[in-house]
Amino acid sequence: MLYAYAALSEGVTYLNGSPQNTLHPAIVELAEKNNACVAGADFKSGQTRFKTAMADFFTGCGIKLSSIVSYNHLGNNDGKNLQESHTFKSKETSKSGVMDDAVVNNKALYPNGNDMDHVVVIKYVPFVGDSKRALDEYSSRIFLNGVNTISSYNVCEDSLLAVPLMIDMVLLAEFFSRVTIDSKKMGPVLSYLSFFFKAPITNRDEFVVNSFTR
Fold it and tell me: Quick check: 191 and 184 in contact, CB under 8 A?
């Protein structure tokens, strides 16, 4: 919040790439007061972006996901910080929320809303450093009550996935901060950037899109 306050006090756009609840309503109000913009939260880079694509794959095939279990371990400061229960809780919420869009837009498969089991586990393992291990298991009930399970395993330097995304975000945010519609600026919340975040905040719900197909 201190970083956000400092940036917005100078009229500088602030992108919240972490899962922390930085963009308090008062922060958004400060952005509007100083003609600045905000977007966030929690950049969607590797595992969660893949999960977004997988959700579209399953729903596009008419297969209802019944269970998603995601396991991660890494050894950088991100992994260390996520050992704190409050920090992990916000991360768990943001990583789980990306499925909502695919579910909401498929009433045939999910007539009762999001009723899948979705579990996220993150462990700190100092030895592996920035080389994050991400395992996912997607399970569905299929014809004659059979069960279909697809598992994925990804190893990647986590920061190398995030930095190019951050560069894209800076360029897009700078562009959107200059765009006007009917003589009105797009801010203070750049809702059009919602796809790049796991848990996007918005002042226009219809602009929040997490699903590739949407």
Answer: no
